[in-house]
Design a protein that fits this description.
Helix content is about 20%, strand content about 30%. With about 80 residues, the protein is α+β, with helices and mostly antiparallel strands.
Length: about 80
C-alpha cells in the first residue's frame, strides 16, 4: 500500500455512517491519512472509532479545513 507524504494533517466529517455505525459517528471529524492508491478507487483512509485506520468510501466524508488551534486539539485526541 502506497501512502503519499503530506505536510499538514487532513480532516474530514462523516456524512454517512449507514454501512458502519459501530465504526463511524455521523457528523464527527476524523483524521484522514494520505493513500493515493485508495483515492484512485474512490476511497479514503480514515482513523475510525477503533483508533486504527481503515478504508471507507470517500462519498461518506467531506474533507474540511480546520483552524490551527482546532487541528492541534484534534491531533492530541488521535
Amino acid at each position: 500500500m502506497r501512502k503519499s507524504k503530506q505536510s499538514e494533517p487532513v480532516f474530514a466529517v462523516c456524512i454517512n455512517n449507514r454501512d458502519y455505525p459501530a465504526s463511524l459517528e455521523l457528523h464527527k471529524i476524523y483524521r484522514v491519512l494520505p493513500d493515493l492508491e485508495a483515492a484512485k478507487d474512490g476511497d479514503i483512509r480514515v482513523v475510525d472509532e477503533s483508533g486504527e485506520d481503515y478504508l471507507y468510501s470517500a462519498r461518506d466524508f467531506i474533507v474540511i479545513d480546520v483552524p490551527a488551534a482546532v487541528r492541534g486539539s484534534l491531533m492530541r485526541a488521535t
